Fold each of these.
Amino acid sequence: MLFDKRRRRALVSTLAGLALLATAGCSDADAKNQPKPPKTGGTLHVVVSAKPAHLDPQRVATATEANVNRLITRTLTTFKSEPGAAASEIVGDLATDAGRPSEGNRVWDFQLKDDVRWEDGTPITCADVKYGVERSFSGLFSVSQPYGKIYLADTDGYAGPFVGGNNGGKGLSSVQCVDNRNIRFTLNQPIGDFGYTVAMSMFAPVPAKQDTKNDYDKHPFSSGPYKLQEVTDQQLVYVRNSYWDRKTDSVRKAYPDKIVIEANGDLPTVTSNLITSDGDNADTIDLDKNVAPNFVQQVVNDPDLSARAVQGSYGGIRYLAINSKRIPNLACRQALVYAFDKRKFRAAAGGSVYGDYANTMIAPQLKAHKDFDIYDSTNNVEGKPDVALKLMDEQRKANKPCPATLTLSIPDQKDIRRLATTVVETYQQIGIQVKINGIDPETYFDVIGNPANTNDLLWAGWIPDWANGSAVIPPLFDGRLIPTKANATNNQDYALLNDPEINDMISAALAESVPERQYRLWGELDQKIAEQAVTIPIVYMKALRMAGTNVRGGFIHPQFGQPDLCALGLA
């Protein structure tokens, strides 16, 4: 992925304090109310709606992939595994601390801990970290996180370790191994919170001798408390990595002896099984789906069920992206925003436990949030179809008719299809037929991550990597980040917005070193983007995840919007 030099010039001094702002609205009540803390041993069963598409740390893209990945992948730093505000803080993971900046935050040094090892017992070295970062520059596969290319110096023309003898054996010059345990990053700009950046999985180490390139995605080598024992079409089985040392890892609790992750998209059946909690269901938790809507009232009104549901709010948002290339007419996009029935959508999802109505892309939990409502949806959660019809009629009279048929892409799962049906019904009111394009959930984000996809509306959600607008606006709306490679799968600007004025405003916000001023700039950008009608914010998401009677330690982690796998165990 190529980045405009204006984009590269200035992610300046976002300050570590920005990332300390908790995105989690949840309290630690869930953990405190558990009758017993987790104990070591047993097999934890985890249900996910679809098997993670990527296990290779350089290719991890979704919250579920990132959550699962921490079982086997350690990074230089990582987020704490604790309920409440502490979950938004980082600590040294493979590194002894959160990093030592110098030269005005342009150089960052990290020292690896003693006795950190791979699953075969070999030491994890600086060379492994350097190689992991270098492989993210390869064109062999689409890398999901662009941070290395944005922040590291001297990356122009570098094509990764698989071509040209890895830059003639020199590798990436901005990542240096001082010795086996000390690694130094040279940045192209001052970055005050680079310690948070290296918590992202693209900075994870990979041993060159174990790298199977594209196939590494199927079975990555472990540096964490577990290793992959088995991978099938529907299941991932993790067992203990005997070379992981608890003394070197303050984050991962690693209570279970085995963790079995199984894909099951039948949400009502999953919820029913967890409520009943017979057999293995007592040791099971639903990681990425809320309680099925038909069971919500039963769960929230039953003290015993409510006590074992893992719940809380966080900084995530559920929205629809409007493909601005396929619907270039602003008035037609505005009509789609005005007509949307948020009440019907949320009711089908389970009501207020699913989330609060949203008007913005930056959630209220973030200080960069600006309160605005340019489509007057707060007072009209059922939409304003009359306004939409007027806009469409004006375009028809101007010989610029809005499309009468649209395609909505969704992960092909029963619960999401039910929600998509409300979208179909909504737009029928204004004479638009919506065709649902169900895509295999396992590959959904790869498919819509190709800018050449032919969908008009796209089901999407977003959880910030840290608690600032810089983790929302640039990845979703900076047109300079849209990949140009024909088979790219890592685009996150699903609306394909590429507005030069907005791009320049993003650069200005990134360059602002005073936090309060930066917050204001992100809020203003959020509003300006809303005027372009390229997304339909629906709800600020909440989590209500059901757990079996024997599961303990659950809380919603703000980085994933899910129960943190690193904290879960059995009673």
Amino acid sequence: MTPDTPHRPSAAPPALRRRLPGLLLLAVVALIAVATVVGTTTPPDPLRADAPAKEFSAARAHAYVEDIASAPHPIGSVEHDQVHDRLVRELTRLGLAPKTGESVGVDRAPDYAAAARVQNIQATMRGTDPTGRVLVVAHYDSAENGPGATDDAHGVAALLETVRALRAGPAPRNDITFLFSDGEEAGLMGARAFAASGGLGAADRTVVLNLDARGTSGRTVMFETGAHNGALVPALGDHVPVTTSLAYEVYRRLPNATDFTVFREAGLTGMNFANIGTSANYHTAHDNLANSSSASLQDMGSTVLAATRQLAAADIPAVAEGTDATYFSLDGLLLRYPGGLVLPLAGLSAAALAAAAWFAVRRRAIRGRSVAVVAATVPVPLLTAAVVGWTGWQLMTFFRPDYRGFVFGDPYRPALTAFGLAVLVAVAVWVWASVLRRGHGALELSAAVSCWLTALAVVTAVLVPGASYLFVWPALAGSVGLALAARLPRDSAWRDPLSALAAVPGAGLLVPIAALFFDALGLALAMVPLIVVAVFVAPLVAPFAGRLHGRPLVAWTSVAALVGVAVCVAGVARDGVDGRHPAQVSLLYVVDGDRNKARWVSSGLGDHPWLEQYVGDGTAPVTGQFPCLKEPEDWRTGPAPLVDAPAPELRVLSTRRGAGSREVVVRINAVGGTVSQLMLYADTAGGSSVQDLTVDGDELPEENNKPDTKGRWGWDFTYAAPPAQGVELKLKVKGDGPLNLRLLAKSLGFPGGTLKGERPATVTWAALDSGFTLVSKAFTV
């Protein structure tokens, strides 16, 4: 620059100052979103074996996991009995007096009649001045195909380490009973037997903490409570798990069940805990020691130890006087408020929106008609998010048929793919906002989104109160931001960013819920968390959209969409099939005992070239001979060598006739080996039917207990882990004609000589309808 050249100030600083509020908003939102997602998905570091005696140590607890989960130990197996004996010895070594309760658990559900003989183990620490009892529960049986390192060896190990830690400190005020339930995987049989035996005690003097798993990694989630949760949730304050009253609202409407379900239905209250990360390993051979996360175990143990201590010092009867609450965790904090505030807060959000909108209209910052037009289009990005999720999964399973083997809809490493789908949804919301900004202002977009948030806050407050907090706080922030923005002059750099204030609480509330939903629902149902992503992004983009038009808009959004697609493709490609991440397939060996014909059958779950040598592309129904294989209607089948396998046997012991009915006593068992289940079906299409069944003194009065079943087998009964001598059943049969029965024997694994060599390491059994043998025979009584 020469001395004669005039100095001209750079245009960059004013431009930067104008963009600074928007950049600050993005930085705050990003920081909150990242922090809450990390807090939702990352468990704490495990403590070493030399941790203080009163603390929970994952290193100490994991020694129990290694002892318990070296092999599958389903109910009725030799390995199961070995685990039982180890638990009794360890509880005795820890200074308790364990008792084994041998009894029969019976499921009297309308659509499922079942029973099993179980061995529950319980041990009690006596309180110094008990007002009631804390019942801490984990099941010690595993699924049939997996060692159950996480489900539920983590829960069992957490209970044992909790016993040790509690005994290292002062005696508790209240009694603490540790229940190691049996037969959970067979239909919650241990919990049912415990409840039927009167072991639950008075409902108003017992609080239950149940430990389970539906994955092998991630944070502990407190996903379900009983009644009066406002008096229970504070017990989580010393070590806060991932929790939300939304999960409570969702889970109680689902058909899913754990041992806690039995206790809740019996009138008890309490809390249910599980970790749900990497559900691809759940109920498979890969729920093993190699995939057992010590960090997840630490989180589970620290959470339950802290909650047990809190409740062991509480006034238990006072819990019954509590009310339900809204609660949620936020990056290690536990936030809660009484359920009675839900409706008033929803009303406040509606009033705040009305006031902010009135003020903004008076200031001529927004136009009512324009806000209405934009609000009418808000469902567009939400529906687009659903389409992205649905289409994404269809494309994944088209290019990767092995993905169909993941029963819970999530592959081993879904995070990168989920992030790519979220990017695509964010791009879709950006396009929606950019198109609307051509005729509408940023404040009008923000006001329209706030209208939807407020409506959702009110609707959920009425229908699902525990979910209302997700919308009421962003709605209030959006209304406050609208009023503040309307007050500023039109040329203020803070005006548009302030109108997007709803995104700040949205980052802390909606983003971790989306992450939780991805874990809980998997990529198969990615549409649900992606809709949440769209709700979060919608208020955030309003101040920034509209700066690009025409070709630049198309170019930049195309580039962003391609980035999202590339991330999805990279995620799917990265999640390849290998020895640690095998393809999961369905394959069963079935024998029609009446015709002495064997077949291989597959439900169609999963895909691998190895499977093709057993089943072809053709399908056929199999429910006629194997009624338990009812879904899908048609199965892939292939010829199989006929090899001896445990077969069912039914003998009529006595018949006593009455007017229009008869009482038939039969014994069912298996010959030729040990079976895991005996399944009895009755033909309800004929003239006779089963009115009720008595097993081990328990009567199950259910005629045609499968009314929605297609075909002839409208009644059934299952006995899990039957004794070698068989099971005696008393059937009350309505009608004088013959009753056609079909008895199936299920045994684990395949008979020797059936498979063509060893199964490769890149293949494992899927979590459903895989890796077992069925032999079926017809009988008439």
Amino acid sequence: MDSSAVSPNGPVPVGIKDLTFQLKLAKSGHKGGEDERGPGAVFLVGAGCSQSAGIPMASQIAQELTLELASLKGALGSDLQSCQTALAWLDDRQHLPNLSTHLPGFDVSKPMWGRLYGYLFEEFFRSDNEQRSIIRDAIDRGQGRINWAHICLGEIVRCNYAHTIMTTNFDQLVLQGIILTGMIPVVADGLSALSRVVSRPNHPQVIHLHGSMHTYELRNSASDIHATQEALSMQGTIFGLKDSGLLVVVGYSGSEDGGVVTLLEKAFAAIPNLLVFWVLYEESIDALNHRVRAMLTGRNKFVILNQDADRFFGQLVRGLGFGAPNWMENPLSILDAVKDKIVEPTEPVTALAKKDFGAKLDRFRNAPTASPDDIILERATIDSLGGRDSNVIEGVSEEMAATDPDAARLRAISLGRLGNADKASSLLAASVAAWDAFFRSSGADDGKARTILAQTLLDLAEAPGNQNGEQSKEAFRQAMENFRAATQAISLNLARSDWIESALGFAESVAEQGDEGAAENDLTAAIEILDKVLTVLTGGPQSRQQLSAEERLGVLLYMRARRTKSESDYRRAIAILDDVSQRAVNHESWSVGVVRNLAVAFRGLAELIQDKSPDEATASYQRAAQLYQDSAEKYLGGLRDLDERDALQAAIWAYEEAEKLYRVLNESDAANAIGDELRKARTDLETRA
């Protein structure tokens, strides 16, 4: 990563390794050696970090309040079937006063529910007691559980990689995660308390930017959120970022129309060199609203894409050198620290209670020793979470894996990770063998184990020396079977699981083989898997992951159509790709690729039906030619992820295809016009050589 990189169109996508490097620098200070404390980092966490704990996000609360409001206003039956129908009912009857004033440009037919959250509190659910009740009910749905993201975040604080956690959430999960490490941070959850926040504290601090569940005055309504940006104490808190130099944003969309997002805009403008990593669940920066994209344009601004909060923090702590918090690895350590801090009581009975407490700890410590295999597995689990895969393989033998499914799983995962990192066929094959042992020993699987096995087989098929060989073909066939099995077994609750990412990767691998290389059953398997993927995606119609899955499905359908001469597959592919092309409007080569693929599908349909339906075939050829021409013009218009030379080459190819089709259609004027553009593009390319 070049930390001085500047993108005129938005932040630069990077990986988690880039962030771990910067966190290590922030901790060390990188000036006076390892003993010198650096400024550390500030984390800003939003609702996306709490969702896996069962706590609903603002958008979900807004949907629920919309249903409740419609019911209170008299809606019945079909009008309450969904939050969308309830919102439409309220709008039709003019029950949404001042909506356009509070939320300019808000589209009731395609609502951004997160924006509606503050408006509903502003106009309807106004009282502090009512707001507190709504928030408490939402938090109670989490049943007091804490997720892995907050457990890891607490350990990041304990290990001095971060000193301040700011949160827009009302729940106490950040606080709980830090307390579990044995530390009690300073908590600021009201505007008056923010005046006591220190920009570079010696003790960790948690800042609730919108108040917490225990605050007397919550900041939910639109006016309260806007008032936040005017509060001097809040401005001081945000502008204190300059003393840290590194901000990590996780699970926060910045979708509100004021408040924290406005303060961040001002801070980013005032501190242009502030190093920012914005972590997104989505696969594209287009998931960010335009204000956030604008503030992330410039020096030292980066995004990490496609990250569920739990998975992100799990990978982050692994990269920092620890996988599980110290209190999990040494559960008595916190209690020992508590005992040591208790002043020796002067009252005899109280002194006896302290003595008994110490004796109980000693009995736990001196309890019968676990079996050697159990100790190995406990150590291997911690090593696996910490990414110390060589230690796992050294400790967990093939013999252990043959009889213990937990041992087999640990060994298989570590062998697979090492094999993938080194592109080593032998390690990947050993991982496959360990997974076989896992299933032979009746290891429990909800589809996740088969997903990882399938991904390992796919890596094996694509490893150097295996491509196109018999081992590669067999590995790919087994991968297909395991993906299919995982698809049948996977739980709909695991919408954010690795299965989705692996399934999309599998479909991509099938598509990359082309319709000549991919077998018909592989194409069918990939289509079935993508159909299942599309039933569990949660990002919404504009989600890059949703669009990518649909686009891959369209491509696979027209590939199968060419093999099987299936008119229905062509028509379904065209319908899907046409829809995606309307929604995937951005300045990236991927979206232009959707247009090109749609052109391919139209041309394939035309070739198939030209004898029986010549008029429709002609229309399809014309649509394909126009789409090729459109894609060429988009390439020449400039794309943020493609340099000018590559864009010219892509445009030349698209123009060539358009010219061929216009010649087939005997449309000489159009063909000649395209020929002129083609010559200009070729000349331009030659001058850049």
